[in-house]
Write a structure and sequence with these properties.
The protein has 400 residues and is an alpha+beta fold. Helices cover 15% and strands 19% of the residues. It has helices spanning 17-25, 80-88, 145-155, 199-203, 219-226, 254-259, 300-310, and strands at residues 3-8, 11-16, 188-192, 195-198, 209-210, 215-217, 241-242, 251-252, 263-264, 270-271, 295-296, 317-319, 322-326, 350-356, 364-374, 377-385, 392-396.
């Protein structure tokens, strides 16, 4: 039988008629491969074909005898699956060889041999950054703010201002020092000489009421009564906030009333835990911050008179940012020259005031004002005290 070569679209197929006949006859019986090392291979056929698809050329090619190959090593025994595959193979089948594309050349010493070499920029070198997180076993307690502040203080990496001096002013109602929380006792208000009261401690007293201008009336009256009343929560004197229920004698400090879970209402009344309604109430007040201008109404003339009567006691009288250190005095021979139609100029008068700096528009400094005597007439002295500068002294014969 002759071998026929078909050419179509530059693809060549070799079909053997003899092989087809042979396969049809031997479908049921499959011969086993010989185990001898010497194996005769079918002779190779050399074919000639033309690239012209339109004219198909078929040739009968001569068969050449193949040279006998040298004896090979003993055959290797394969598993049964591979042997069955060898049995099915026919010696006359066409063998197809697939040629793969060559791989990229491996780079010696690189992490990935298949990747092309990266560009090396002049003066720079790329590195890989690996992050490793170590989580300690067991319970971890985060450091508190005090420990962090102490650690930063040891390192010396932070700049902190000087600590604020402790406020020793004490509320004469609840006996707590310093300003309270905004949503609590609130700020301290001056009641009298070295007498202070928290805003809400005075506002929520039974006798006290507030005018439209923000003045608190009857604060001194509430203080006199509170000095004789004991709080139901802390059992200390100074309680002024009583239960609004008729014939209820429970009375508290404002801070103690919050701790005892009393109910406050928008009409400035309060009910103790025994008489408050269950659940929430539409008129209940839960926020106590006061941002409006509030002050204690008092007799300033009587207050100044009490300062003079107390003599040389160590007290400070302040009006806003103006602090009085010494009132001074006038002798009979000085009365003629040390006064005007509107003011007196006592020798030894001294006061200080915090006001805007003359050097910077957004800073404040201290001005120390005093009155001295020179040639029988008053001399007004102002000393400017500002941090980072020497004291500047200004003098004149008139207060202006």
């Amino acid at each position: 039988m002759k071998d026929i070569v078909f050419c179509s679209n530059n693809c060549f197929v070799l079909y053997s008629a003899a092989l087809q006949a042979k396969n049809s006859e031997n479908k049921e019986s499959v011969p086993s491969l010989p185990q001898s090392p010497m194996k005769e291979r079918p002779p190779k056929a050399f074919h000639q074909y033309s690239n012209n698809i339109s004219t198909l050329d078929v040739h009968c090619l001569p068969q050449l005898q193949e040279k006998v190959s040298p004896p090979s090593s003993p055959p290797i025994m394969f598993p049964p699956a591979f042997e069955a595959a060898k049995v099915e193979a026919k010696p006359d089948e066409l063998k197809v060889t697939v040629k793969l594309k060559p791989r990229l050349k491996a780079i010696h010493g690189s992490l990935d041999d298949c990747r092309p070499p990266s560009k090396k920029w002049k003066g720079m070198k790329w590195k890989k950054w690996s992050i490793q997180i170590v989580i300690p076993k067991g319970s971890f307690k985060p450091p508190c703010e005090e420990e962090i502040d102490e650690f930063l203080k040891k390192l010396g990496t932070t700049l902190k201002p000087d600590p604020v001096p402790k406020d020793y002013r004490k509320c004469c109602f609840c006996h707590e020092e310093g300003d309270g929380l905004t949503d609590g006792p609130a700020r301290l208000l001056n009641l009298d000489l070295d007498l202070w009261v928290h805003l809400n401690c005075a506002l929520w007293s039974t006798e006290v009421y507030e005018t439209q201008a923000g003045a608190l009336i009857n604060v001194e009256l509430a203080l006199r009564r509170g000095l004789q009343m004991k709080c139901m929560f802390c059992h200390k004197m100074g309680a002024t906030s009583g239960c609004h229920r008729l014939r209820c004698t429970n009375i508290y400090h404002f801070t103690c009333a919050i701790k005892a879970q009393c109910m406050f209402f928008k009409d400035k009344t309060m009910l103790c835990p025994m008489h408050k309604p269950k659940g929430t109430h539409e008129q209940e007040l839960s926020y106590f911050a006061v941002f409006r201008r509030v002050y204690v109404q008092r007799d300033e003339v009587r207050q100044i008179a009490s300062i003079v009567q107390r003599g040389e006691r160590d007290h400070t009288f302040r009006v806003g940012s103006l602090i009085f250190h010494a009132v001074g005095q006038l002798l009979p021979q000085q009365m003629q020259a040390f006064h005007s139609s509107k003011a007196l100029f006592p020798v030894g008068y001294e006061a200080s005031r915090l006001y805007w700096s003359m050097r910077y528009a957004n800073r404040r400094c201290r001005y120390l004002c005093s009155i001295e005597e020179k040639d029988g007439f008053p001399l007004f002295v102002i000393k400017v005290v500002e941090q980072g500068y020497d004291d500047l002294v200004l003098t004149d014969t008139t207060p202006k």
